[in-house]
Amino acid sequence: MKYCEKCGNQLLDEAVMCPKCGHTIVKIISPQEQKQNSKQLTLSILSILGGIAIIVAAILIAIAQYNYY
């Protein structure tokens, strides 16, 4: 269990706000969690960029074939 920094009320571990005073609870992220989140973000960005590259390549191929005929 954790406690509210402002009023001292006991909180559930997954609480994001104190139900007694409304104070926002700040989650402390460990370095391992930060590293994992960074890796996930990097993979997401690379996936999006890869998808965009495939779409652009398909459009360029379609334009080239259209101009060929």
Overview of the structural elements:
- The protein is mainly α and 69 residues long.
- It has one domain.
- The chain has one helix and two strands; from the N terminus they run E-E-H.
- A two-stranded antiparallel ribbon has the order 1-2.
- A hairpin with a 6-residue loop joins strand 1 and strand 2.
- The mean pLDDT is 91.
Label this structure with key terms.
rod-shaped, 69 residues, single chain, two-stranded antiparallel ribbon, mainly alpha, 55% helix, 2 strands
What can be said about this structure in brief?
The chain is mostly helical and 69 residues long. It has one helix at 31-68; strands at residues 2-3, 10-11. The longest helix has 38 residues, at 31-68.
The main β sheet shows up as: 2 strands, antiparallel
- Return the average pLDDT rounded to an integer: 91
Order of strands in the sheet with most strands: 1-2
Order of helices and strands: EEH
Beta-strand residue fraction = 5-15%
The Cα radius of gyration reads: 24 Å
Shape: rod-shaped
Total number of strands: 2
Helical stretch tally: 1
Give the end-to-end Cα distance, rounded to a whole number of Å. Answer: 71 Å
Helical percent range?
Answer: 55-70%
Structural class: mainly alpha
The total domain count is 1
Unreliable parts: none
